[in-house]
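Memo to structure team: turn this sequence into structure tokens by end of day. - J.P.
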Amino acid sequence: MNMTEAIFTKDNTYFGQETIGGVPCTIGYTKEFRWSWMATQLNTFIFIGETNDLIDKAVIESFSAQCLKYALANHKGWPRGLQAGVGAIAILKGSHMTPEAVQFCTKLSKKHWSAFEIPVLYDTTHKKGIRFVQKPTWGAIYFPYFSKLIDAIFPQL
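Reply from structure team:
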């Protein structure tokens, strides 16, 4: 069992191993219903991949989009949009990343119908996670949950 698989196995959220956009990934999945989310069910996928290549804006943007596509095709439960949403947290680990890639992850700009695409970087050299700084207005009720999930994973990477 690899280190990232152990993160998800410990929390009982392990979903599997896949290659997303040429990057081998470990995937965790959780489905949760909360009344505070206006009685919706949120299907959340967390992808953890690692590359030795330079991570620029195009790389993280493509990786994040492909993770969302995978999440939309593989979620279980209620149909998206009918009191249900899908979240795709795409964590890409690496030691070489451009400032544009970092900026892309700190400012969420992608909007999708009943779905959340969250690009995240983890700098393996400095042992530092990079995620959105402010929650967007669209889907704001879900972002404290996403923040908590991401921040709990960073120390384990």
